Amino acid sequence: MYDTIIIGAGCAGLAAAMYAGRLNMKTLMIGDNIGGTIALTDVVENYPGFIRLTGQELADNLRKHAESYNIEKAEAKVTKIRHEHNCFIAETNEGKTYQSRTIIFATGTEWRKLNITGEAEFANKGVHYCALCDGVIYNGRIVAVVGGGDSAAKEALLMSQYASKVYSIVRGEKLRGEPINNDRVAKNPKIEVIIKVNVKQIIGDKIVKGVVLDKPINGSTTLSLDAIFVAIGHIALSQLVKDIGVATNKKGEIIIDRQSKTNIPGFFAAGDVCDTVFKQAITGVSEAVTAVYSAYTYVNENEFICPIGNEDLMAKSNKNT
Hints:
Elements: E1 2-7, H1 11-22, E2 27-30, H2 55-67, E3 72-74, E4 78-84, E5 87-92, E6 97-105, E7 109-111, E8 127-128, H3 131-134, E9 142-146, H4 150-159, E10 165-169, H5 179-187, E11 191-194, E12 199-204, E13 208-217, E14 220-224, E15 227-230, E16 234-236, H6 239-242, E17 267-269, H7 281-301, E18 303-308, E19 311-316
Parallel strand pairs: 1-2, 1-6, 2-3, 6-17, 8-15, 9-10, 9-15, 10-11
Antiparallel strand pairs: 4-5, 5-6, 7-16, 12-13, 13-14, 18-19
């Protein structure tokens, strides 16, 4: 029986594990991707205390800090969550079952797709979602980055280190990255920003050869490319929580309050899977630490009836001091 099970092992999950260990909570962190998506980020310059480091370095630092405390880890994927009496049961793809007094849900997001013709057909054959992962393949080639936010700006900047030419395709009136990244894009001679345009189709034979746009650029609606990197946002990985009645918004993001509480007592959430507007590694870490404190308080203020096998066990929480 755990005081808390943390589902997710990215920035928020690792921060939660560290703080739960610090509060002497009996803790299990379950995740099949230790480090999460931050590990796929080339450069991080907005995490307090570090002027500049790679995403992998930040993930490693968070992991080492968490592991310095007495926590347990399971590299697996949670496939189902049950809520029985006032306890939670997490089932994994390895066929194992874990019981806990509380849950801290920090699964993050997955990349949003364009959902256009050719996207699925050419996946990993010129269609990609991570410049750090796949950008080096296109050294000296012509590529496009689709998206108008800060992630797209950073992807374009990273691709400019490899490609001979980078088209930044923005459907809005301007690139909406952080000002420092917008300036870097504008000053980069390899990057050409194309605004007010949408990609309608990805074309090629065995690999990507180009895209079809919804309006002509330089006299043609076809733009010849060797690859397209999609950076149009993320989808919250919250499907698991809906079966137990955790409230989500129209985007599927988990609704939390300032204490990282959801509408289900004992169930807390943190990070990009939540309905907070501003999503950064540091904000996810903050929510995670808040979630742990809320879980710690909840465990110490309640008694629990938790199912073990075919029996019910009155599990009184340990009074942590």
